[in-house]
Amino acid sequence: MAGPGRTAEELAERLLAGDKRALARAISLVENDDPEGWALVREVYPRTGRASVVGFTGPPGVGKSTLIGRLVEHARERDREVAVLSIDPSSPFTKGALLGDRIRLTDHFLDPGVYIRSMASRGSLGGLSEATLQAALLMDASGKDDVFLETVGVGQAEVDIIDHADTVVLVLMPGSGDSIQALKAGVMEIPDVIAVNKADHPLTDTMVREVRGVLSLGPQEGWRVPIVKTEASRGEGVEELAEKIGEHREFIDEQGTLAERRKRNLMNEVVALAAGRLRRELEANVRDDPAVQELLDEVVARRLDPASAAAKLLEREE
Ligand SMILES: Nc1nc2c(ncn2[C@@H]2O[C@H](COP(=O)(O)OP(=O)(O)OP(=O)(O)O)[C@@H](O)[C@H]2O)c(=O)[nH]1
Ligand SMILES: [Mg+2]
Predict the structure, then answer these.
(1) Which one of 97, 164, 256, 269 is least enclosed by Cβ atoms within 10 Å?
(2) Smallest CA separation from ligand 1 atom 10, residue
(3) CA atoms within 13 A on the CB side of 22
(4) What is the pTM of this model?
(5) Ligand 1: does its nearest atom lie under 6 Å from the Cβ of 103?
(6) Relative to the CA of 61, which ligand 1 atom is closest?
(7) Tens-digit pLDDT profile for residues 110-135
C-alpha cells in the first residue's frame, strides 16, 4: 500500500507535468490547510517563479471577470497556458464554484491549457491571503504562463491578496467615484495599470479624466500608469490592455523591481505565516493551559496589566 509520502510525491509529479486534476486536488489541500498541501508546496516550490502573476481588483460588477475571460482568450491565441484564481470575499458559499454564472467561460473549462478556480474568503485556517499565495504557487508550478487573480473591492484585504501579483490592474467603470476617492485618500496604493471598462458608457471620458487627475498627484518618474479604455463584453481594448500588462512586466524586469517586489511579497508572506501560526499556538495555550488562565484572572482582577501579561505569555513560548 502506498503511504502518504508516496501519494504526495505522485501528486507533485502529476502537478509538475501540468495535470489539471492534480492541480485541483493540490489547491483543495492548501485551501483546507491540510499538512499534505504544505508538503506539496514545499516539494514544488523550487519550480515556481516562472509565471507572470497579474492581479485584478476593483468594485463589484465593473467587469473584472469578463475582462479576464477576454485576456484568457488573448493568451490562448498566443499558446500561453493560463490559470485564473477568483477570490470572492462577499460570499462564503462559493467554495468550488466557478467564477460566477454571469460569465461564460465554458469553452475555457474544456481547454486543457486553462484552469479556472474560485476560492471563498472564509473557512481557510491559514487565512485567505496565505491560501491564495499557495494556490498561485501551485498554478505556477503546474506550468501556467499566466496566473490571473481576481478580487472584489479596493480595501486593504483585497490589496493584501493582490500583493502577490507582479502587476496589479485596477478595473473601474464610469461612475466608480468611490474608487477615485480611495485612490486619492491613499486607501489603495496606485495600481500599475488602470482599465476603465464599460467604455460603451457615455461618461467614460469623464471617468478617464478623473483618473488622470488622481494620477497627476502621484509620482511622475518611473513607470507611468497607463489608463486603458475597454469594453470587455465586446472585446474592445483587450489587446491594448494585454500589451500594457506586458510592458509593465518588462519594465519591472529591466529595472530590477520585479525581483524586489517578489522579495518584499515573499517576506510579507513569511511573516504572515509565522504570525498566523504563533497566534494559533497562543490561542490554543490560552484555551488549554491553566497557568495561562491564572494569568488572565490576574488581569481581570486588575493585579496585572495586559501588556505585562502578554510579555509573560511570550516568555513561556520561548
Ligand atoms: N455594457 C457593458 N457591460 C459589461 C462590460 N463588461 C462587462 N459587462 C457586464 O457587466 C456585468 C458584470 O460583469 P462581471 O465581469 O461579472 O464583473 P465583475 O467585476 O467580475 O463582478 P464581481 O466579480 O461580481 O465583482 C455583466 O453583466 C457583464 O456582462 C462592458 O464593457 N460594457
Ligand atoms: Mg467577477
Answers:
(1) 256
(2) 63
(3) 21
(4) 0.86
(5) yes
(6) 21
(7) 788 999 888 875 544 455 667 888 89
